[in-house]
Each structure stands twice: as C-alpha cells, then as structure tokens.
Amino acid sequence: MTHNAYIIGSGHTKFGRLSDTLEDLIVMAGREALAEAALDPSEIDAVFLSHFNAGLVADGFPSSLILQIDPALRFKPAARCENACASGSAAVHAGLNLMAAGKARNVLVIGVEKMTHRSTPEVTEALASAGYHYDPAETGLSFPQLFALAAEQYMARFGDQMDVLAKIAAKNHANAMKNPLAQMHKEMPYEFCREVSEKNPLIAPPLRLSDCSLVSDGAAAVVLSTDNGAAGSATKRVRFGAAEHVSDFLPLSRRKISDFEGPERAIRTAYDTAGITVDDLDFAEVHDCFTPAELMIYEAMGLAEKGEGARAIETGRVLADGQTPVNLSGGLKAKGHPVGATGVSMHALSYRQLTGQAGDIQRAGAHCGLVFNMGGAAVANYASVLLADRA
C-alpha cells in the first residue's frame, strides 16, 4: 500500500512512571504535534487514538479525550484503534487509509497508555488478553512465556544465543542513555545482562529480566497530511514510501512462533513497495518487546540469513555507529513500552530522525528509515518505510 502521505509534526512525552493522567498525556502529545506542524486544530479533519487498555485504566472511552486538546476539534470524527501492541500503527494506518480514500487531508494520531499504577501481575494478565484462549495448551501463557518459547525453539534449531540476547539488551540500554524521553537512563552492560542474578532474575526461562521490555506510561503523536493538505506547505515533512500490514494466525498450533513469517512478509513487502532494499536503510525502529524478538527481526529485515541474526550485532552493523543502527531510541527495552503509544512513538521519533531533530540520538544524514511494530507474538505486523522529503 502506498500513499501520497506525509508526517508533518510530532509530539512525545517522556516515557516512564508518570503522575500525569491519561487525559494529560493525550493533551500534551497532541498539542506538541500540532505546534510542530504549525497547523491550526481547525484544519484537522479526523483524529485517531491508539490505546490497548485491556482494563488497565478506568477511561473506557479515551478517543473522546482528544477533543480536550483544543475546542476547534469539537465535532471532528474521533475513534479509538486497538490491535494489541501494534495499536499505534493501527491508528496511523487508519489515518492513512482515510486520506487515501479522499475523506481527510489532515489527520491527528495519538497513542497513549497508563500502566505503572497497576502491579506487575496485573499488567501481565492484561497483556495476556492478546493471546489465544481457546486452546488449553495456550490459555494462561504470559507474553514472557510466549517469547521464551520462541527463544527455546530458535535455539533448538540454531544453537545457544543467550550471549547475543545480552548484547542486544546492553545495546538498547546504551542507546537510551542519549534519549531524554527514554524511561531508563541506567547503563546495563553486557556482563550484567548475560548473568542470572538477584538483580537480573529469570522471568520466564531462559529469559532474564534484562530480556524484557518495561512497564510504562506515556504518549506520542503525529500529524499526517496529504500533498493537498498542510503537507504542501510544510517546511519539515517525511513521506511514507510504504505502509504495510500483515496478520498471521493467533494460535501457536497453526504456525512456528520462531519463524517470524509475518514480520518478514510485512517488511519485505514494504521494501518492494518503496523500491528499496535493506541496504538503503539509514536506521530502523523495531519492536523489541523481548530480546529474542529483535534478534529474529534482524533476519526478517534481511540483515542476516535465517539462524544467523547474531551476525548483525556481532559485526556491529546494528550498533549506533553501524551501517544500519537499530533502536537508536533505546527501543521498547529501555525507552519504554506504553503499549498504545509504542507504534506512534516509533513513527514520531523516526520523523525526527529524518528531519534532523533527533538531538543526541541523531543519525547524521538519515534519509530512509524502517518502522516495524508488532502486535502479539508476530500476529499483527506493521512495517513503514519513511523517507526524508524536505519541502
């Protein structure tokens, strides 16, 4: 799917344990995105909110809260989008599709989640609602357990990768140190991530605490526009070269979880649509909910052959100064993972990379970036290719 569509503004709160309400976060991110786009709220034709919720907060009708940003948004169509951890990209796609249908020229998309006020068991249970519940073998599996299963399958086929997973975790924590919006500003060196300890216990064997993404609060926003909307006069804009969505079976009995066929199909289709190859990418923001996911995404991206994903980090290619840095933001692992905000955050920070506004995490001269956002265990798979298009 291709679009004559652009991102022309972004907003992003800090991620972490925040005292702000869901409404506060929505308003902060939305106002920042509109200000950056230099767009009057009256020019917005529709708004979409991504929010997983699953009982985490009492605000069961959050899309209505977008209108709190500005009175000019009153009577604009507003809807919530939900597709597990890929809810953010689902909202972006909803905006793109509305513009492609000629029903809107300018769309505001906001992703938000409040999670830290709930206990870890409560959050784990809520997230598990995105799993399959009609098979006794899968009912009750948490997401750490699902990705532990993926790691076990992968290592049964390709050998022990625990040192590689530790290197991925350490890389993303090092990247987050330069991102002021990231939740965790604490170095977690490879030696710490490699060992099971009191501070780094096993969560779902073989996965350690350092292999798991964070429980987070936060919001992010983007303003989408067509060439005949505000994008035509935007001084800083980023073009969608591709925006692809592939869904796979939810039951594990219908597929091999460690194959990551859905991510590969989504990403490779996005390359084809945009007319690029993996070697054209200047960076990627990908869904490292657990370190085995990032390892397998390397292969889905084409950075390495199947079973050789370790080479991507061992050769330095995905490091901050490598050919194709992955998760310069710190990723879900260290930037944080407020579920509904994650996909929008990836697009917002990639927009900033491609417009030279990424600060200390800037990739010099970036012109082409990949966003890969995943819902469930490689079930809902969204890939965007974003291209610098400075008007």
How would you explain this protein's 3D organization?
It is a single chain. The protein is globular, with a radius of gyration of 19 Å. The model has no long low-confidence stretch (mean pLDDT 95). It has helices at residues 22-37, 87-100, 120-128, 143-158, 162-176, 190-194, 261-274, 291-301, 310-314, 331-334, 339-354, and strands at 5-12, 46-50, 78-81, 106-113, 202-204, 207-208, 218-226, 238-247, 283-286, 368-375, 380-388. With 391 residues, the protein is α/β, with parallel strands linked by helices. Strand 10 (368-375) and strand 11 (380-388) form a beta hairpin. 32% of the residues lie in helices and 18% in strands. Helix 5 crosses helix 8 (291-301). It has a domain at 5-118 and 215-233: Peroxisomal Thiolase, Chain A, domain 1 (3-Layer(aba) Sandwich), CATH 3.40.47.10.
In short:
The protein is an alpha/beta fold. The protein contains 11 helices and 11 strands.
* Widest sheet, order of strands: 3-2-4-7-1-8-11-10-9
- Helix % is 25-40%
Beta-strand fraction estimate: 15-25%
CA-based shape: globular
- The CATH homologous superfamily of the domain at 5-118 and 215-233 is called Thiolase/Chalcone synthase
- Compute the average pLDDT: 95
CATH architecture of the domain at 5-118 and 215-233: 3-Layer(aba) Sandwich
Q: Helix/strand/pairing class, anyone?
A: alpha/beta
Order of helices and strands: EHEEHEHHHHEEEEHEHHHHEE
SS element count, helices: 11
Radius of gyration, in Å, reads 19 Å
